[in-house]
Amino acid sequence: MIDPADLDHCREAIREGSYSFHAASKLLPERVRDPALALYAFCRLADDEVDFGVHKPAAVLDLRDRLDLAYAGTPRNAPADRAFAAIIEEFDMPRALPEALLEGLAWDGIERRYATLSDLRSYSARVASAVGAMMCVLMRVRDEHALARACDLGVAMQLTNIARDVGEDARARRLYLPTDWLKDAGMDEEQFFDDPRPTPEVRRMVKRLLAEANRLYMRSEPGVGRLPLTSRPGIFAARHCYDAIGRKLARRGYDSVSQRVCTTGRHKLGLLGLSLVRAAWVSITPESAVIYAKPLPEVAFLVDAAAHPDARQPVRGEQVLNVFRQLEARDRAEQMGSPIQATA
């Protein structure tokens, strides 16, 4: 069980760091909400350290060590780490799921860029769908169809985040738009960083991201009906809070460069009400055949890991180990003051 003091710390971290999830979590039953808050605190704090830390490679390498300690049953003496170790033990959390998140953050640490939409879905699978699969585990759901739809929702939410943050990322010299899209538009990445503008070409890219997100939001919905009844409103709330960001962006002409879209507290309150209604409706309507859609190829490994927790899986595959070798090299270079080039 999670120590109450550690849980209070996690709750405050989410209250300050993730308004959308904090709002949605109010509709989750306590037995799911408390471990979910602890899970999100660990994941969110790790993500922030990579996004906003001065030394990204060092932050990811530190997270690797923290994850190893948590799975060894000897977590670092910090509230989020102790709470996460308690979750691992209580829910038999498959290690492949947080390992996938770690790999996605490692890609951030080496400033990886993504050539295609499929590449971007692969990144989203790691930093978002892995969390969605872990949420299913917290609900004691191992049904592969429900897991596939939860992973759809994770990718959709991450694509919405990326669409919203195009300008903010560019000013920080980060790029998540598919580089093939920029080439097709005749745009140079470095020039975009130097002078980010909401040109028609950039707006079209934001629109394309949101179109894919909308497709996956729709695909995800039948999965909610396979979740425990009391958890459905909270998941619908998360879906609608993120989708509302994309809808607001669309109303503003897909300009996420000169402004950063957010939803108001009153709007979130209305979305919570909508989520309660939709949760009741899904309980009395026939199940859609979309529930049986195959997982996205980019998330299939997450579905398999969560659905079959007893299967033997490597702690870290060679692909992940190679990323960590790059991170260690970048970390040494940063310490020595050497210039570092972004990794394609």
From TrEMBL:
<dbReference type="InterPro" id="IPR044843">
    <property type="entry name" value="Trans_IPPS_bact-type"/>
</dbReference>
<keyword id="KW-0808">Transferase</keyword>
<dbReference type="Pfam" id="PF00494">
    <property type="entry name" value="SQS_PSY"/>
</dbReference>
<comment type="pathway">
    <text>Carotenoid biosynthesis; phytoene biosynthesis.</text>
</comment>
<dbReference type="GO" id="GO:0051996">
    <property type="term" value="F:squalene synthase [NAD(P)H] activity"/>
</dbReference>
<dbReference type="InterPro" id="IPR002060">
    <property type="entry name" value="Squ/phyt_synthse"/>
</dbReference>
<dbReference type="InterPro" id="IPR033904">
    <property type="entry name" value="Trans_IPPS_HH"/>
</dbReference>
<dbReference type="InterPro" id="IPR008949">
    <property type="entry name" value="Isoprenoid_synthase_dom_sf"/>
</dbReference>
<dbReference type="GO" id="GO:0004311">
    <property type="term" value="F:geranylgeranyl diphosphate synthase activity"/>
</dbReference>
<dbReference type="GO" id="GO:0016117">
    <property type="term" value="P:carotenoid biosynthetic process"/>
</dbReference>
<comment type="similarity">
    <text>Belongs to the phytoene/squalene synthase family.</text>
</comment>
<keyword id="KW-0125">Carotenoid biosynthesis</keyword>
<protein>
    <submittedName>
        <fullName>Phytoene synthase</fullName>
        <ecNumber>2.5.1.32</ecNumber>
    </submittedName>
</protein>
<dbReference type="InterPro" id="IPR019845">
    <property type="entry name" value="Squalene/phytoene_synthase_CS"/>
</dbReference>
